[in-house]
What we know:
Layout lengths: L1 H39 L3 H19 L11 H25 L3 H22 L1
Helix pairs in contact: 1-2, 2-3, 3-4
Amino acid sequence: MRKSLLAIITAAIMSLSFTASADLTTHMQSLAKQFQIVNTTEDSAEFIAALDAMRTDAQAASEILPGSLTENSEEVKNYKQGYNDLIAAIDAAAELAKAGKMAEAKVAAEKIAEVRNTNHKQFR
């Protein structure tokens, strides 16, 4: 009985870990897709919509820890800070676009790639 209970608990934990990993992957793929739109569109409404979607995905992904990180570690703080930096870069580009400054917004969006690249090196 005890071994069966242990097996069930282990399976449940593994399932949750796999689900979290899949959710994180989904958010990362959506971020990449939306960033491609940000980089290619000249339409301000489409640009803003893509940034809004990116912000939503970044916020959701920031709540999911990859299996390689342990709760309450210094790495987790850095991981969360990376998402805060990403969201700040998204917000800066969106603010400029909403003000009708698309050229400046496009330049500001380059910061999103910098934040992504920095954090991918550290956490991927």
